[in-house]
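A sample follows:
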Amino acid sequence: MVPERHAEDGLNEHHLRRLLVSCQYIDHLLSEIENVLNTVDSPGAFPKYFIDISPAERQVIEDHSARIRRQLLRLVQRHGISHQPGIPARRAIHSILAVAQISAEELNPRHLRGYGKVPESAAAVLKPLVGELQDLIAALDQFVTNPPGHSAEPER
């Protein structure tokens, strides 16, 4: 991941790892800003933000973010730090869908009893809707983990 010691400045492996982790975190925070800005374009059912930023302001924010990222890359390159992504996208999506499946399961009437009695009429409507939601999540997970025409490669 990182060299034992950078010849010119004497930083050790732990220093270099800390630099990398901090740079990765700053990049993650910039991605969060992008997510906020992209809320208006998102097909999300329950948006968290409303956009009160003009297109010109958005462009300035995006330009600054790009400059910050270029500086992050210069910093790690200057110290000879390399990093390759280590998590396959399929595994990440599969994990996220597993959490979504658990959350969907918790919408079933039997899990709602802790909040009070669920009327039978409400349970009769809720159960099939939740079942359909679970089926949709499972179908997406099946597609992600076993797409048609894709030969499974061993995970890293």
